[in-house]
Amino acid sequence: MGIRIILTALAGLFIAQSAQARPVESSLRPQMRPAQTVARAAATAIDVPVRSLRPVLRPESLEKKAAALAPAPANRGFRRWIEGFHPRARAAGISDGVFRRAFRGVQYNTSVVQKDRNQSEFTKQIWDYLDSAASPVRVRNGKKMLRRHRRTLARIEAHYGVDKEVVAAIWGLESAYGSRKGDIPLIEALATLAYDGRRGRFFEKQLIAALRILQSGDVRPENMKGSWAGAMGHTQFIPTSYQAYAVDFTGDGKRDIWSDDPTDALASTAAYLSRFGWNTGQPWGVEVRLPDGFNHALASRSIRKSPRQWARLGVRGVDGKPVPNHGRASILLPAGAAGAAFMIFDNFAVIERYNKADAYVIGVGHLADRLKGGPTIQASWPRGYEPLSFVQKKEMQRRLTRKGFALEKIDGIIGPNTINAIRAYQKSVGVTPDGYPSQTLLRRLRGG
């Protein structure tokens, strides 16, 4: 879905950027909500949407501080912008009547701008993210939804070939199974962001798409609500993704992803995954154990082997047996050599089309496995590890560059390019080349 585009637009934390559907008040990747928010949700057994990477609500104290620093409402300039935008919308085929109805009561939304400008304050380690993504509450609620919508999900699975548990897992992460779809008027949010200018061209494109959706009659303006960044419905489609991939599975003539009935939204998610090559019967990945002395340089998305070939190198499932042949696969170490290892297959990359972050994909995959009755992740995580801050990540990238390990840019985002540079540096100094950005790595870089 154009979902991918928004992830790319909203720079992230864990890995590269790019995304699709996203959770309410969160970014476009697994970006973490403050610890107190997660703790409060756990204490009250509320199933909150998790996302490695999307903008999250800030703690109350910071919200107040941001509000104090926010610019005064810009309604006068905003109204002028809307007047200038009207001819462009008309040229894109939007009728004057639809435009007038869509913009009735729309105002410059300062809270949307604040959320857009404050996406990187909080980060969460993958183990904390997965604790939330596949929490007991989320698993319990997911199983309840699988029972409640078993006929619908069975029909969707039969039609698109996508596991019903995977569809349900995306639903769970994106909107807590429809309980948090977002309540911000979409036209107001997108117009504010288009006017604000930081990513104006992208959000104007989404705004035109949203107006086309209104013009098609799929939803009324007052019901077109979602997250601050334009994601809509049970599984958080952005407008361009909705236009390209949403389906009318109920047969009522509308592609309705907003109503209490999640049928069209769930079918649209399955249609999206199917469109990008979902392999029926193939897992997203499986947890594995690596042998002593494993060459961690082989843990790369660019290195793919059959499970049998990996078994010859000593890689086994957590049960000690070779992994069944589900096709060629790579080894992924999301927390470096000290954490869990996964053998990932082609379906990993398909889920990645929804949200580029590894943490999100593993979250969806693991939650789906738990909904099928599978176990928790068996390996331990390096809990207590002190992560690099955004500033420290940029410092690490600068120091790697100075030492001759090429990077495309210094942006504080730990994507494949940075991971490869880290690995190359680690190999040059004789340490385990797991590509993991750690305080130990930064201290070594600082040491010369």
Task: Describe the protein's topology.
Layout: H1 3-9, H2 35-43, H3 60-69, H4 75-91, H5 96-103, H6 110-117, H7 126-133, H8 136-148, H9 150-160, H10 164-175, E1 184-185, H11 186-196, H12 200-216, E2 225-226, H13 239-245, H14 263-275, E3 285-289, H15 307-312, E4 316-317, E5 330-332, E6 341-344, H16 346-352, H17 358-371, H18 390-402, H19 416-428, H20 439-446
Antiparallel strand pairs: 1-2, 3-4, 3-6, 5-6
Short description:
This protein is 47% helix and 4% strand. It is mainly α. The strands form two sheets. Strands 4-3-6-5 form a four-stranded antiparallel β-sheet.
Structural summary, described in words:
The protein has 448 residues and is mainly α. The protein has a domain at 390-446. Helix content is 47%, strand content 4%. It contains 20 helices and 6 strands. The strands form 2 sheets. It has a 4-stranded antiparallel sheet with strand order 4-3-6-5. The chain has a two-stranded antiparallel ribbon with strand order 1-2. A hairpin with an 8-residue loop joins strand 5 (330-332) and strand 6 (341-344). Helix 8 (136-148) crosses helix 10. It is globular. The N and C termini lie far apart (45 Å). Residues 1-46 and 51-72 have low confidence and may be disordered.
